[in-house]
Amino acid sequence: MAVSIKDVAQRAGVSVATVSRVFGNGPVSPELRERVEKAIAATGYRPNLSARRLRSQHSQTIGLMVADIRSPFFTALSRVVEDEAYRSGLRVILCNTDESAEREAMYLRLMEEERVTGLIWSPTRGSLERLADEDPPFPVVLVDRGGPVGRHDSVVLDNQQATATLVRHLHTIGRGRIVGLFGNTSSTAVDRHLGYLTATAALGLSSEAFFVPPNAEAAEREIVKVFSRPDRPDGVIASSSAILLGVVKAMRRLGLRTPDDVAIAGFDNETWSELVGPGLTVIEQPVGDIGRMAMTLLFDRLRAPKAPARKVMLSGRLIVRGSTAPVTGLVDEPVD
Amino acid sequence: MAVSIKDVAQRAGVSVATVSRVFGNGPVSPELRERVEKAIAATGYRPNLSARRLRSQHSQTIGLMVADIRSPFFTALSRVVEDEAYRSGLRVILCNTDESAEREAMYLRLMEEERVTGLIWSPTRGSLERLADEDPPFPVVLVDRGGPVGRHDSVVLDNQQATATLVRHLHTIGRGRIVGLFGNTSSTAVDRHLGYLTATAALGLSSEAFFVPPNAEAAEREIVKVFSRPDRPDGVIASSSAILLGVVKAMRRLGLRTPDDVAIAGFDNETWSELVGPGLTVIEQPVGDIGRMAMTLLFDRLRAPKAPARKVMLSGRLIVRGSTAPVTGLVDEPVD
DNA sequence: GAAACCACTGAAAAGGATTACATGAGGCTT
DNA sequence: AAGCCTCATGTAATCCTTTTCAGTGGTTTC
């Protein structure tokens, strides 16, 4: 049996309440405090967090639920969230849903059993809709995937704006037939699609959008199919880094040169983005800010449960690289 | 106040013990079981995991402690470990140490307070040595960084063998001045360095090794320095994917062509490895197997606490790509 | 027909902390 | 000197389960 607070109390010649107060910064005389601390050191006592949580009715735990931690955006997000959480004395329970509504439901139940104080969640489209009907018994902050309105706090990239920026950039370097390739599971892709449609329409460009499973292989297949048709597009916008990688692979396979034959651009700046092909033009997400803002929203919510929901939109940053370099001699507009 | 087992019992007209048995698959008559299940559904009861853990003295939780979840190897590892854990009804506590011994110690204390049933840990070199002196009060499985002997179970790549394979491969394509670039924090790098020394010696090659902080920037700086000297090496081996990226960046900056001027190779196969430059030659680690084996070792250990420690070594797979293609006209040995 | 056994069930203890409440000792005010 | 705070401390209740133990009623065994 491990050493409990009783053993420490006995050894220090005080009551268990006093030992507890030493941990909780309650009022304890310097003399007793020292005796207790000595006893703790001597016994190697470690407070039992389960007991503490049970009694104090405070789990000191939050949930983080994403599609797949291996997706670079979520990797970075989780790192930020964990850092912030530990700094505030909170534990994090990480869940990978693989975009499955069933697993989301299962993990939601788990969160309830853990009595989490809050959840940071990037839900699938289905769950996002269902979330409008019934609330979990803890505050939820949506992240990355915000949905239309908001009974819940959310923090997302300004996806429409960001995608429009990409479209306008491709137009600037003289591309007129720009196709969009979007993931078929997230609401993010819906917003990005909308931005794509709006921007192409505003510029008087044709538009053609494809929705694929959000992985490189599916994207590659789709692009190979699209570019095997007689009149090829001259630009591609990809709605995630995985999809963008698939596009690059497809270009290699088809023997098309970037940016000469096709200019390509997408989302998420990774360590390798500048080293793939001629360098990839991307929208960089402020993932650090997104994660910290999510935590801030959660803390605010805990303080004011009834306050109206807030939706925070952050803007991305366009990083221009070789994959959208202007083709010399073909373009005479100035590049901004 | 949330609904407790008492409320369910009351509503179903049974004792709390019976409700508990419904969850624990104890002996309950079909009739009562149904009444209890109805009451659970009606009340929306969720068992309180803190209370359960306190009473049953079983945390159903394991720890996973790595340097940085953003490092691709650890990202993949964490995904495997989480999957395996949830499949067995275990929670995972993830900790990022940033290679700091101080944070390792802090998180070890946290693990004790959580009463984890075990820890999967990729320790810094310092902690690895200290681990020889005193044991945490739970089983530890070392992963990726195994250390020399073993009071603890461990599962690692055969790093010496893998690095030797890289050296021999570079030699096969006609490279004779191969430098090695290794991280300066992990024991992994030590093993890889040893493999590098052994293999170059066996082939009668000169050797020159550098130890750098395990990030792309530091690696880039070091390589730029080394390659600015009069007689350039013609091959580089990097001991991690981050370092390898730094090498690629350095080559760009120096205007050196790969593989013509310098052949480069390293560790860890990522989604983007084939798309960076001419494609990167790497040793692929069986990260899925490593993670699953770590869990297996942990479960075995829980069953047999006194059994002798096991050290499992898995072998990597060489993936040859453009960064080590033979230079035409310069080499006449056959490529294997 | 008594004994042994079985399958269920409930009452109550236990697990390890926090915390409401009671107590007692000093120090102040009046 | 009585009354009243304040501060430090201890006692005991409480958080919500699981689990032990002791039935209960019914069936099988000898």
Walk me through what this model shows.
Two copies of one chain form a homodimer. With 336 residues, chain A is an alpha/beta fold. Chain A has three domains: 5-54, 434 Repressor (Amino-terminal Domain), CATH 1.10.260.40; 61-157 and 287-315, Rossmann fold (3-Layer(aba) Sandwich), CATH 3.40.50; 159-285 and 319-324, Rossmann fold. Chain A has twelve helices and twelve strands. A six-stranded parallel beta sheet of chain A has the order 2-1-3-4-5-11, with helices on both faces. In chain A, strand 3 (118-121), helix 7 (125-130) and strand 4 form a beta-alpha-beta unit. In chain A, helix 5 crosses helix 12 (287-303). At the A-B interface, helix 4, helix 5, strand 2, helix 6 and helix 11 of A face helix 4, helix 5, strand 2, helix 6 and helix 11 of B. The structure holds a DNA duplex (30 and 30 nucleotides). Chains A, B: Keywords: DNA-binding, Transcription, Transcription regulation. Chains A, B: This is LacI family transcriptional regulator. Chains A, B: One of its GO terms (molecular function) is transcription cis-regulatory region binding. Chains A, B: Residues 3-56 form the HTH lacI-type domain.
